[in-house]
Structure formats: structure tokens, C-alpha cells
Records
---
Amino acid sequence: MQRCKRCLLPASVAGAGIDATGVCVACREYSPKAAEITEAQRAVYEADLEAALEDCRGRGQYDCLVPFSGGKDSAWLLYKLVVEYKLRVLAFTVDVNIPPVAWKNIRQTLAKLNIDHLTFAPPGEFYRRIFAYLLRHQEARGAVYTVSYVYAPLFEGDAIKLAIEKDIPLVLAGYSPGQPEPERMLYEFSRPLIEKTDWTPPELQRCGQFSPAELSRFFNPASYAPGTQFPRYLAPFHAWQYDQDLAMKIVVEKQLIASSRNASPIFSNYPINWLLMYSDLLHFGYNPYAPEFATLIREGKAKLSEWRVMGPLVDLMIKRRWFLGRHVTEHLKWLEMTAADLQITLPQGAYDPILPT
């Protein structure tokens, strides 16, 4: 597969526009001026974040809530908030599809930082059914987008519900720049999204496969009494200077995570993600995370030399279903599916919540 020689963006990504010199449109158009604009916006976010972290102090039992998946970014975020900012933090884990290495990271980080932690284990059968439905009825952007942006709002909503219950003013997520999709979040979930939007995906309401009780798992502000105080939901690494390699280095140096291997997203990510990547490779011919990593490389936040090797290796594991790619076979079996069942059948936006006008 042809890739941009500067950022590794695959040529098959829509709009890649790799020219005769092997450079994509985004790299050709990237300029110090564009970087200055991005940096100026980051500085605005950082100023707001610093004010929010100061304002949250002492308002309740906890200053902030951090969804903790066991990855390098959420571990680093916990360290910064507890050690550098001296905040009272409640860590929160939704126990669905978390791999053993991530649980090891969770236990080590919590022991090192000595902070309170809650775990919520929702019914596994609901998730099995919803994953199977989503993969059989993907929207036009494919499996990673479809599943991630139905699955993520479930645990994001769980965090918001817990923050409301415990009167915690801030939810702080360890999303790196580029996560989630910019249309969902740039630094903060909008107030209309949190205060006025039913997060239940329209397609799941329409299909008739899930009961009202099951769909009530999705966050809906209308279920709360008037005057309820909803938390802010921020992504601090959209505001602070971020470097992927630095994040991996720090969490190991601070003994939050045992090794760089355990800190790598390749090992600590949700196992079902391997099946999602497999589906998108089948349908689109490139790894769905390639554009995100290309942006990090372009902006100097990830190493070109590292991902020149790791990117093709990950794709090979997925296609051959060996080593970590074995999760493709394991999850197809768990979901009682075959590769032929992985289908794109719906238009773009079929699962997106309807924002108030």
C-alpha cells in the first residue's frame, strides 16, 4: 500500500491526494502558520482548563472524576491531577472488554497514587447483543466509527451519571488530540449535548431489537429533575502539550505502568477493537486509525520511524489473525458471527444522537 512518506497516511484514504513525490495533501498544506493557529487554540483551552481545575476544588467529596481504562493517557492524567494539581480524584472504570494488561495497569496505578476507585460491571449480554447488531448494521464510516461512537457514549454517560450522583463538577477524560472525532469533541462536550440531548442512538430506537430498559443505559438529561447540575466533560490533553512517546515514557518512569509494552495502545486497547479494525480493513483497505496517527506524526507528536514499522505489523496481525490479531477470531466466535456478517448497511449518521436545534 502506498503511504505518504512524511506521515504514513494511506493513499486509499479519501482526499489523501499523494503526489508524485510521495507526499499527501495534508503534509503539503501543513505550515508553521497552521501550527500557530492550532497552538493559539490550544492555549485558549489550557487557560480554561486551569481555571476549571482551580474552581472545582473543595466543592464536594471529590474535585473531579476520571474514567480510567488502564491506558497510558488515563494513567498519566491521573498522575498529573493527583500529584501535580493535588486534586481529590475519583477514578471510574466500566468493566466491559478490558484486557488483562489494562487491569494490571489499573491496579498498579491505583496502588501508586492511593486514590479512590469505583468499578461498574454492566450486564455482559447486553453488550454482546449490541456489538453483534452494530457490526451487522454498520453505518457508512465502518466498524470502528459505528461501534466506538455507540460504545463510548455508554461509558461516557455512565461517568456523567456518577458525577451527578456524587455532585462532582468535572469529568476529565484521557482522550489524546484527535480523539474522539472532532465533531463530537474539541476539548469539551458542548453544553447542549450534556444538558439537552438524548444520547440514545436513533437506529437502536428504530430497530426494535432492544427494550426500553436496555436503551435507558444511554444518558438522557431529560430523565433528571429540573435544576440538576450537570458536570463539565473535558479532555485535558487537548489543552496541555501532548506527546505520545512522552506519555509512554512518563507512566513507566513514575511506576504507574510496569513497562513500555504495557503502556502501548497496541497491547492495552479493548480486545474487540481488533475485530473492528479487521472489518474496516476488509471494507476500506486501510487501518481506520491510520489518519489519526498520521496527524500525530505530522504534528511531531508520534514517531515516524516507529509507526513505519508498527503500522504494517499491526495490519498484518489483524489480517492473519495471529498474536493480538487472534482477538478477531475470538470475538467473532463470542458474537456468533462470521466475517461475512460484517456489513455496512446504513447511511452515515444513523447512530448519531439528534442535537437540539
---
Amino acid sequence: MIRIGVDMSVFERFPSYRRGLVVARGVSNRGTDSVLEERLRTVEQTVVERFAGREWRQDPRIAAWLSAFGELGIPAGSKPPSIAALVKRVAKGGRLPFINKLVALMNVMSLENLVPCGGDDLHAVGDEIRLQPATGIETYRALGAVDTLEHPVSGEFALIDTVNGVVLCRYWCWRNSDITKITEDTTAVALDLDLMGTAVPVEEGDRMVRRLAEDVERFCGGYVDWELLTQDQPERVFQE
């Protein structure tokens, strides 16, 4: 059992925010998949063409996140929302590595819909994950920097393993933790989609989460469940 939620203080600042969740157990994340890799390359090219001669920061969905980061005082230049960093890289012609199937699905979902998408290996967390203001005493080891111990800023919105006091993602949707990174050995995972305001209509957000769940089941198998958290339903318990 794992409880995943969003603190009401997040909704108080951003009432139309929603968090899509896909929780999957018994998945197979080993090997590559030619269909999935082709989908990744196709969406990369779509992003290049979409932003050719156009400022990607002005896209409504990316702009919504840049605005939210600005409102929270997060320096988006050095700590951009993940979707901004991803689109900037791909729009310049950068090619994303096919790390594993679940990571590829996260990248595809982000680029197809221009929304942040993250994920954590459930075998590396306790039985509660919450997006909430940090106290500042939690620990964090950034993706790719496992030997460097950090602490979040008190009050910053962070995804936190509340049982172990570990930050899974700093600054809402900036950078995930190395501790819970998704690898080929991952068999249980929680993926999240961050949907901001009117930039993503409710029905479209619902379809995104359902599509991600269907893709996880298609490419990785296992038992897959999903939910869309809102201020009216800020948490969900997922059973084993």
C-alpha cells in the first residue's frame, strides 16, 4: 500500500493545479522497444518543427510553469521546470538517449503534451509520498549526483517521501532524486504528470493520464492503476 497526495497549501496557491498519477507494479523495464523508440524520435522531430522560428517559452503550457516558478521565487534560469529544460534541449536538435522503457515513456509523454512528467521506483520509498512544502531538514541527492547530500529550502514545494524524510523531486518539478531513479531493474513505479491551470483542460488532462497508464501496460506489462488528484480529491491510496 502507498498513499500519494498533494498538500492543500499547493492548491491554495494554484487552485486549478492537478497531478496525474500512474502506479504500476510487476512491470518489466528491461530491454529496448523499437516501436517506443521510434515514437520518441518522432516526437523529438515534432518539437523541432513546432518551435522552428518560434520562442518555446511563449507556449501556453510552458509559460504557465515559468509563471508559477516566478510566483514562487524559483530561479527558472538555473532551476527550470523539467518541461522547459527538456523542450529547450530537444528544440535545439538534441537527441534524448533511450535509457529504458519507462524513462522513454516519460519523455514521450512530456514532449507530446508539453507537461512535466516524473517518476520514482516504489521499492526505494516509504508508504507515503506527498507534494508539500519542505521543512528544510529533509535530505536530497540529485539525479546523477548521488554522492552529494543537499537539503531543500524551507517552504519550497517538493515531492517528499514523508516516512524517510527524503526529497524525491526538488522545486515541484525541477529535478528528480538519484535514490529513486527508474532503472532496468525497476518493477514497481509511480509516475506523475503535472498539469497547470487552464493551459490543460480537465478532460484533456484525464486523457493524458489514462494514455500514460495504457502505454505503461502496453510496453511494460504489470498491474497498472491511475488517478487524477485535485483540490477536491487531494490524495489516493494505491493497494498492492
---
Amino acid sequence: MIGGEIKVEKINKSFGNFQVLKDINLQIKKGEFFSLLGPSGCGKTTLLRIIAGFEYPSDGILYLDGKDILGVPSNKRHVNTVFQNYALFPHLTVFENVAFPLRLKKYKESEIKKKVEEYLDLVRLNSHKKKYPSQLSGGQKQRVSIARALINEPSVLLLDEPLSALDAKLRQQLLIELDTIHDKVGITFVYVTHDQQEALSVSDRIAVMKDGVILQIGTPYEIYESPVNMFVADFIGESNLTTGKVVSVNEDKIVKINTEEHGELYTYLDKPVQVGDTLKVTIRPEKIRIATKKPENIPPNTNVLVGYVDELIYTGSETSYFVKIAQKNVFRVFKQHIVYFMDENPIKWKDEVYIWWYANDGFTVEVTK
């Protein structure tokens, strides 16, 4: 299979007076695993349905491999869709569900048998081919749905929250399988999800959407480490926020800001700023260190604050600390349990603690002149 390239130009979509999509511009590369990520109601599923041909935009252009396909019916586009609710025929076996698209196209029985078994092998369900959907688990049903969509050999596979009906452990397992299938078949995947971890785990690139607008497009690393604004920073994982006025910018691109809650702090110059500007800076919880003793031999421009543990959550692999600073702001800190010592005194609730992070661990998400 060869993946298709999708290009969306200035697409708008309204239902009555409500505008769902606002001037969407997007290019998805051949063979890419591309995710549309955002909260419920942001327009991601509507955009997917426009690509599939189930909805038509109010205006704009949609290209597949350089050809405008807006006037092409959904069944004539080289695009297939995997739905959240599986959409399997309950009266047909696994084999017949997957064979259905080929029977519509009048394939020979020998060719149907060969291709169905090939795709059932791909999703590891050949041993279940005589079963009916009611005899399958949720994960198995979704794999049948994926095999049926792929047997048409589309250039683009659209996946509309395909794992949301599954429990967390099964969802993670099927996500890995989905990524493996993508690597094997090599076609373009467009994946709709509201789950940040799903998108970060498998995507080549992600488009973060809110209120019908694409806020940022980038690799998982770019989206997580360099969010363009506060919404993206807060939506993708956990984040701490502090606000302050720029006091100085030194030659090493270190910005000193003065905050009401914590006095002077340091951050990295990742956006053009001037003395007097107000910055909103985010710090990821895993970037912050925590200890009951004041840190020694730390580099210059390191931010050090003292507070107490207001709450803690132990999850096995890590502990999440909520540290209250000066009875005001609360910082969330993740401490991974890499090494465990039987005689170690763990940080407890109400303990006084020091937290610290380096200047280049902060990221500016908003500048006000």
C-alpha cells in the first residue's frame, strides 16, 4: 500500500449559526501517523468526517494526492474509516465481515480467501475467523474493524476515537498493535482522539484543536516541550504556571522575572521579550527536583523555593507531590522511583521541602507588552 497526502485549505464548517471549523489549513504527509487532538466539541471529528466524505464544508478545498475530492462521494474516495462502535455485522463471522468489501467488488472466491487470511494474520485474528462478533472481546472487534477497513487498500485510514470504548490496559495494548500495523502497511493514518497520552505515544505529528481552530501542529516532542500557549501546555500533560515581569536578559539568554508569589525567578529566552514585559512561564512537574534538605552545589540561575507537602499521591513508579509555597501557589512535582532503599526516609505529608529547577526547564507560553 502507498499512503496518500491530504491537504486542507481554508475549510470552514457551520451547523446553523454555530461555526464548528474556522479556516482550517493542514497538510498530512504520505505514510504519516497524524493525530487530531482536542477536547470534546473542538471540531476534530467533523474535520475527519469531511475528509471521509460524510460531511461537506461550508467552504474551502480538500485535496488527496493533489486532486480536489470535495465533489467525490465517500464510497469513491480512496479513504476508509474505523469507527468507535466497530460497526460490524452481527450475523456475519469474522471472516465474512472482513470479506464483505471484496464481495461487493465481485472478487473471486480464491482471491477473497487469500486476502482475508492475509489481513486476519496482520491483526492476529486468523484463529478466530469462524466466530461471530458477539463471541469477541472489544479489542478483537476493533481489530476486525481495522482489518475490514484495510482490505480495501485505501491510501488513507481514518480512525475516529477507535479505542475509547476499551478499558485502559486493553487500550494501551491495542494502541501498540495499531502502531505496528501502521508500520507494516505504510499508509497514511489520521487518528482522532481526546486522549493526550494516546496521541503522544503513536503520532508522527499532532494537531491540537480548540473551538474549531488548530492551535499548534508539531511532533509529540515539540507539542509537549514547546507549547505555543497556555491551553496547549495545560492540555498536554501536567504543567505549573507562574507569572512575572522581566527584570533583565543576560548574554546566556537567561531571563530574570519578578513574581508576586516567589520573588525573582529565572527562565530561558525562548521568545523575544523586553524588560518590563509580563511573562507566563510553565514548568513541567517532572522537571522539578524535590528534597527535604536545601540543595548544594547547584548551577547559577537555578530556581529554589521552599514550601511544605500539602498532598501526595503514590502510584508505584512515582510519587506526585503538591507543594504549597508561602501559603499561596501550589507546585506539582513528580518524583520517579528509580532506586529504592529500605532505610530511606520518604518525603511525607506536611514535610518542609525544597523544590528547584533550572532556568532552561521553564517555557514561556505568553508575553504581554
